Inverse folding.
């Protein structure tokens, strides 16, 4: 009997420098090797937002070495769940994929104080997604 395939989740926002980076980091941190994680942007920035990296560091997750990636059709095709966060119609649609659209404030141009509530909202949504996927979060 073969083991079931692990679910694959893709997070997409415009710049792949804030919300999608936080979501991917939380899912990788809490889901471990029980979930495959990707993130991308429809118009990726050059670097991760420094305020986002600082806010994530406060909760023990280092994303300072991450780099924004461009959204590809292949990334969407290879994912079971596609979570969009303000990327508009830039995300390709494939039948059979599960699409979620999370309404979250954009941390672009914000300081760490403004990013913290966004970070906390992202974490709560990730915990909910893990529950839907039947994955117990790591401590």
């Amino acid at each position: 009997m073969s083991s079931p395939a692990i679910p694959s989740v893709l997070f997409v926002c415009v710049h792949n420098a804030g919300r999608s980076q936080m979501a991917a980091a939380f899912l990788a941190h809490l889901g471990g090797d029980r979930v495959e994680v990707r993130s991308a942007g429809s118009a990726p920035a050059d670097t991760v937002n420094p305020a986002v990296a600082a806010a994530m560091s406060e909760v023990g997750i280092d994303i300072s070495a991450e780099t924004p990636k461009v959204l590809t059709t292949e990334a969407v095709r290879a994912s079971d769940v596609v979570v969009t966060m303000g990327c508009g119609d830039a995300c390709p649609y494939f039948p059979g994929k599960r699409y979620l659209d999370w309404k979250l404030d954009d941390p672009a141009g914000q300081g760490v104080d403004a990013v913290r509530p966004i970070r906390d909202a992202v974490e709560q949504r990730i915990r909910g997604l893990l529950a839907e996927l039947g994955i117990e979060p790591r401590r």
